[in-house]
Amino acid sequence: MERRSNALVAFWADIEPSYVERYRQWHTEEHIPERVAIPGFDTGQRYARVDGGRMFFMYYDTASAEVLKSDAYLRALNHPTPWTTESLRYFRNPLRNLYRLLQEQGAAPGRASDFIVCARFDVAPRAGVDPTDVALEILDASLPEGVHRGRLFEIDQAATGVTTKEREIYGQQAEDQRYLVLVERVEPADRKSLDALVRRLGDAGADSLALDQYALELGLRSTALVV
Questions:
Q1: In whole angstroms, what is the distance from residue 32 CA to residue 219 CA?
Q2: Domains along the chain?
Q3: 2 to each of 99, 223, 224, how far by Cα in Å?
Q4: What is the dihedral of CA 209, 214, 218, 220, to 10 degrees?
Q5: What is the rounded CA–CA span in Å between residue 123 and residue 202?
Q6: Largest CA distance in the chain
Q7: Measured between alpha carbons, how far is 202 from 49 in angstroms, rounded to an integer?
Q8: Is the per-residue pLDDT at 175 higher than 90?
């Protein structure tokens, strides 16, 4: 059964080069299956870097933001398995944020998209202007042809800042741009297209912009979505 996902766990990280294949094994065989088995988790994906940013982008769609505060999810974060404890020690430059969905455009693909562009940004304050209205304009500017879906999220600062056993292992983070746009693509964007996208988003009002492109390595759906 299809269900609209309204929140997101997003994790970007570099991995110690000597551990990359072991990391992939852990994430494929244990971590994604563990996460999508938590009630309210819909999908889990892992993407590898194509342009910019950190080596890997991992994200999980959830039914609501409340799922990210649930006892089941917090229990998993505070009781990492031995393999998770081992793997997280090889994470470098980690960034993990929790988000609420604000707007979605386009149709959800039947499976994880082959390519995804991530744009994290703030909106510079302007008198009499709602920053979320500007963020919606930035979403519109993010959607050229060849796109499955574009989604705009807002960070949940309180949920993101919760200290857990897992965070104690991989460390703290500093990047907390208010908005995230995920653009799910049929084909990769070339460098010229990405540079043009950066200009369009800047013209639309994006500030402190970080834009990266990734290619799919693994996507898994919760069995709760299968009838």
A1: 9
A2: 7-225 (3.30.70.100)
A3: 20, 11, 9
A4: 40
A5: 10
A6: 51
A7: 22
A8: no
Phi/psi for 178 (5° steps) reads -70, -35
Q: Give the count of beta carbons closer than 10 Å to the beta carbon of residue 126.
A: 10
Query: Contact at 8 Å (CB) between 217 and 15?
Result: no
Q: Using the predicted structure, report yes or no on whether residue 110 has a pLDDT greater than 90.
A: no
Residues in the chain, overall count: 227
Q: Give the CA angle between residues 220, 36, 153 to the nearest 5°.
A: 85
Tokens of 74: 């917090």
DSSP state of 32: H
User: Dihedrals φ, ψ of 190, to 5°?
Assistant: -80, 175
Q: Which helix (H) or strand (E) segment is 21 a member of?
A: helix 20-26
pLDDT (0 to 100) of residue 173: 75
Confidence of residue 2 (pLDDT cuts 50, 70, 90): low
Distance, in Å, from the CA atom of 162 to the CA atom of 73, rounded to the nearest integer, reads: 12
| DSSP sequence for 115-151 | EEEEEEEEE---TT--HHHHHHHHHHHT--SSEEEEE
Are 43 and 36 spatial neighbours (Cβ–Cβ below 8 Å)?
A: yes
